[in-house]
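Give me the fold.
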Amino acid sequence: MVKVADIMAGDMKNARENSIQESGSIFPEFHKIIQRSDKETYLKQRSRVIWLTGLSGSGKTTLGSYLEKELFSMGYLTQMLDGDNIRSGINANLSFSDEDRRENIRRIAEVSKLFLHCGIIVISCFISPTREIRAMARKIIGPEDFLEIYVNAPLEICEQRDVKGLYKLARNGKISDFTGIDSPFEAPANCNLEIRTDQLTVKESSRQLLDFVLPWIRNGR
């Protein structure tokens, strides 16, 4: 039997494994549901997870929103996932500790995978600061479906933008574990696309992203 203490301590992995081992009641029946390929054919698109990573203020959500609107206008079905929205809902119980950052991305990757198998194009906009965390997301989603987009702007540019005022708060010591200030960001080593938002206009950056994505999602169009 699963111990309540395991769950209360946050040891969800052990709880899950114990539950499966002890109850023997988990029997995935994916073969009984309508397959992803059928849904993609119906929607006339190929589902992918477009994973935008970068510092706060680099332009991830701005580009993700533009991409979603453009694809929607072309008849594509999309779902955008954004850090603030996710943390106000499904991940509201998580902090910004290293452990909780990892759990944050694990849950997001699993949610992205569910949408992926519905034939939907997923636009995930998350700092996802370390290579290990992004590698975990790629493994969960599947490397063939995971498109890593590095939205790159230097820290000083992101601080100048500081749309949410978070950098100022971090510099003043009012918030801790803030990526780029007292928590590291590891730039991707082998991303699918890098967009230098400090060197391009929003329109140019958005067009670069759209032009890259379209060949990956076309299905009989």
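Confidence is low (pLDDT under 50) at residues 1-13.
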